[in-house]
Please model this.
Amino acid sequence: MTGKSAGNVKLTSLVEPYLAVFSIGLKNTLAYKTDFVLSLFSSFFQAGLMIFIWTAIYDFTNTTSILGITLSTMYVYFFLLYAFRVVINFSVPEVMQEDIQNGSLAVAYTRPLKYPIQVFMSGLPDDALYAGIITIPLIIAALLLSHVLLTPLTIMLVISELLIGYTIVILIGFMIGMLAVKLTNIYGIMNSTWSVILLLGGGVLPLTLFPNAVYQILMLTPFPMLLYVPAATFLGMISTSVAIRSMFTGLFWIAVLLLVTIIAWRSVRKKITSAGG
Model:
């Protein structure tokens, strides 16, 4: 066997266990297909609710534009937000909480698999199906409403921003999941974090509607990359230079969060007991 063949066999043996975890996660997710149908309708309903609220605001103020944002642009903006919500799907902390509650975490830690990668692969099918069933229809709806002509550069920027935002949420989710070792039930923390992301990430209103000083501060945080920046890039609400600068900000936060996560996980894993945490 040549060195290259041996290397391929070794790589395959390392990857196969994680693919098996992904396959199990996919089967578990497909067992609840009704949840995804309901999630699709829920996303359209929530986007419609925000559109209704902002229609009332525009009508009440008797204006056609607020700081350069027209009502039609606002419509598309909220369709895009709920299309991109796959980025902030908290599957990782949910998986970790379940593992801790039923004692699977201690068992998983004895397997020849890296637990952080294992828990990521367990939650990935849920995110992938959300993207396929909910994100794509909402993006199509946004394109039909806006008649936006996406350039290759815009598509590349939006995809890159979503990947950066997804990585940030995975790291935040893992840190929240580690709290379950002490708290056991972390649904309240997950919901609170979701609310903060929704507000500071542009999920309630475009960040440009905040006072300029607040806007500049928010753009230095990781939150805009999760919702506002991809949607604003898609619609041309921000320039290419601002989008690229936001991406570098997002990469900086990935490095910070990754460092904090590694340090915290080394401490937490020492406390794991056979009872699950």
